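Worked Example 4.2. Consider the chain below.
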Amino acid sequence: MTAAIVRPIVTRKGKEHHSTGQSGGAVRISGVSAQHTPATKIWFGQVSNQPGYRSLPHHHGEAETGGYVLRGRGRIYFGEDYSKFVDADEGDFVFVPPFMPHIEVNMSVTEELVWLTARTPENIVVNLPDVEDATLEGYHRA
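Applying the procedure from the previous section yields the following structure tokens:
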């Protein structure tokens, strides 16, 4: 009987997993996930929004989500009719609770927004019916 070799797994730049849950204008790629590593209890990846773009309304089921704004300025709309929001700037961390409907927005019309995101137990994305841009206070597209 031979023992399995246990070692760290590196996902190289350009080799990330692109077949992951999406929500419109938020593009997700994973560096660590059950789809391409031995991970079983975490999804870790990058989420980006082009200038002036936003995600569809969605939630992440039972998953807890932690985010870090690597570049740009983001806003997360939540609450009844997405009437509440929090802003996150470069260097800020964000926590989104399980089952919370929300919309992720790039508040810049010139710069890309890039988040690093960790989610447990995996990347669950449940898209919800869309809303008009005009219902999102302070938001406008590029």
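The CA atoms of residues 52 and 141 lie 4 Å apart. The mean pLDDT is 89. Compare this with Example 4.1 before moving on.
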